[in-house]
């Protein structure tokens, strides 16, 4: 229920509309959503279990892959189940606390995954440029510390968004035109100045991701230099093939995320 522009309403619940303009197609849209979620859960879950059980896979590359799989599960599970409940059961209601929790874990997991992708680029860099020192540089202790730093950095970056959202008074509407709660989508419903929400919500997480991307680009620049110095053409192709799959994952991860941030800021 919308409220007057001059009065504050403490909404206990918000309503997610799903995909605007496509309500009649929700049941059909849910099919690829469901299939992709099942693939993500089963694939990532299987990867985590295999790496955990098989001791021969306790190598830096596979440990980073299992970390990425775990946080991908967190990211997808924070958004897709609620979207499916909207598509299937018209379950559009979500509590304010649930909304804030969802947006936190969504942004948190995204920034964590960005940091893990950077760690994987560093892993490739060490493996190709310093192969004889690989196991010394990337010991299990170092990998654990890298994982801890990535999670701490992400928490410190994203957690202030929770306070910035919870401080806002809402006096307009409690209808969110989306399938999930997102920082700017929720902040735009407030009847207070949200300038700090806009700039923090965009600049800080985006800056951390851009720094990660810049470091990844530098890493692969150094990797390419090392690869093209290899005397064997087969060795060059093998090294490029190993890095190519990682670059594809990086592009699939960052491009949709950047588009979403820009759309939320200017859309």
UniProtKB/TrEMBL annotation:
GO terms for molecular function: G protein-coupled receptor activity; olfactory receptor activity. Signal peptide: none annotated. PROSITE patterns: G_PROTEIN_RECEP_F1_2. GO terms for cellular component: plasma membrane. It is a multi-pass membrane protein. Its main location: membrane. Keywords: G-protein coupled receptor, Membrane, Olfaction, Receptor, Sensory transduction, Transducer, Transmembrane, Transmembrane helix. The chain crosses the membrane at residues 25-50, 62-84, 104-130, 142-165, 210-228, 240-263. It is found in: Membrane. It holds the Pfam family 7tm_4. Coiled coil: none annotated. Residues 43-267 form the G-protein coupled receptors family 1 profile domain. The keyword Flavoprotein does not apply. It comes from the Eukaryota. The keyword NADP does not apply. Odorant receptor. This is Olfactory receptor 52B4-like. It comes from Carlito syrichta (Philippine tarsier). The gene is LOC103276138.
């Amino acid at each position: 229920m919308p409220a007057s522009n001059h009065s504050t309403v403490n909404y206990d619940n918000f309503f997610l509309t799903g995909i605007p303009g496509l309500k009649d197609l929700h049941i059909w849209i849910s099919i690829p959503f469901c299939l992709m979620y099942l693939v993500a859960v089963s694939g990532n879950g299987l990867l985590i279990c295999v790496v955990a059980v098989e001791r021969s896979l306790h190598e830096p590359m596979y440990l980073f892959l299992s970390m990425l799989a775990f946080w991908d599960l967190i990211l997808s599970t924070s958004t897709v189940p609620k979207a499916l409940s909207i598509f299937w059961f018209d379950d559009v209601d979500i509590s304010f606390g649930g909304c804030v929790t969802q947006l936190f874990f969504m942004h948190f997991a995204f920034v964590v995954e960005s940091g893990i992708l950077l760690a994987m680029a560093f892993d490739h860099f060490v493996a190709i440029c310093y192969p004889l020192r690989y196991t010394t540089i990337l010991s299990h202790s170092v990998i654990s510390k890298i994982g801890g730093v990535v999670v701490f950095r992400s928490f410190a970056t994203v957690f202030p968004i929770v306070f910035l959202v919870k401080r806002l008074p809402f006096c307009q509407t409690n209808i969110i035109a989306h399938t999930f709660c997102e920082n700017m989508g929720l902040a735009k419903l407030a009847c207070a100045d949200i300038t700090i929400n806009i700039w923090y919500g965009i600049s800080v997480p985006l800056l951390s991701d851009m720094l990660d991307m810049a470091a990844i680009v530098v890493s692969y620049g150094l990797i390419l230099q090392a690869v093209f110095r290899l005397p064997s053409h087969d060795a060059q192709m093998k090294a490029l093939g190993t890095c190519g799959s990682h670059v594809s994952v990086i592009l699939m991860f960052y491009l949709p995320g950047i588009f979403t941030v820009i759309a939320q800021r200017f859309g």
